[in-house]
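[step 3/7] inverse_fold.run input=structure_tokens len=250
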């Protein structure tokens, strides 16, 4: 991949989007990770009106390394950052749900994940509120590996107005970050959604991003890995389309 040309084309595309939408700028969630760092850098090249939002939500990791890296990324690329702590908001919602969350539940794992996925959904509510108030578009930050595996929260981090990196594998995201001069700590740390302390994407998925990259780009992977990717893709198909309507089913 010609990374320099890729960056130029993506920036031009973002500029055109802003103009066609009549938007004044862009807002995105900044977790201090690789994907949001790249999205922020690309958006900043397209417009000065970019707002990064750091949104800790209960996880101690959010208040430590994630926050430090998010601030470092904002400073490196000259992007204004604000912090909105959603911990009390989640606590209030969880309290309101109470026992209803586990009532007639389909297992303890489902209850746990329902609680975990509140975090990204609260974050997207926050971004859209800020974006609408300012006349900004909300930028998505999911890469091709995550989209293929369905490794994102429906109506959470999967929601956005546009996504400038959705076609890039994890390896290609890193290539772009290095080209743009992203902070080394962001490039070198293990990918994590930061949903809870110690969480990493690859441990949770049980698969290496390098294998997903190879599968997506026609490289060699074992039959076991290929089937695992295909099962994940099939079981999460509903996340990659708009809701079904009665008319479609007729």
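[step 3/7] decode complete -> sequence:
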């Amino acid at each position: 991949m010609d990374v320099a040309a890729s960056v130029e084309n993506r920036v031009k595309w973002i500029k055109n989007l802003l103009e066609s939408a009549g938007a004044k700028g862009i807002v995105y969630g900044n977790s201090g990770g690789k994907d949001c760092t790249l999205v922020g850098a690309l958006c900043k090249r397209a417009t000065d009106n970019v707002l990064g939002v750091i949104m800790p939500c209960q996880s101690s990791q959010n208040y430590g390394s994630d926050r430090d890296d998010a601030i470092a990324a904002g400073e490196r690329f000259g992007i204004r950052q604000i912090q909105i702590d959603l911990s009390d908001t989640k606590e209030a919602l969880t309290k309101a749900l109470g026992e209803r969350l586990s009532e007639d539940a389909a297992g303890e794992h489902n209850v746990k994940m329902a609680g975990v996925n509140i975090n990204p959904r609260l974050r997207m509510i926050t971004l859209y509120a800020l974006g609408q108030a300012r006349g900004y578009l909300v930028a998505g930050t999911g890469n091709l590996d995550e989209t293929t595996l369905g490794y994102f929260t429906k109506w959470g981090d999967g929601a956005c107005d546009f996504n400038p990196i959705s076609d890039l594998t994890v390896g290609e995201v890193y290539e772009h970050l290095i080209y743009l001069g992203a902070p080394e700590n962001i490039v070198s740390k293990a990918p994590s959604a930061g949903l809870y302390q110690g969480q990493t994407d690859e441990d949770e998925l049980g698969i290496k991003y390098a294998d997903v990259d190879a599968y997506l780009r026609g490289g060699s992977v074992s039959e076991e890995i290929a089937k695992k990717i295909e099962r994940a893709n099939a079981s999460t198909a509903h996340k990659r389309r708009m809701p079904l309507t009665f008319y479609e089913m007729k």
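[step 4/7] annotate
Residues 3-249 form a domain with the Rossmann fold fold (CATH 3.40.50.620).
The mean pLDDT is 93.
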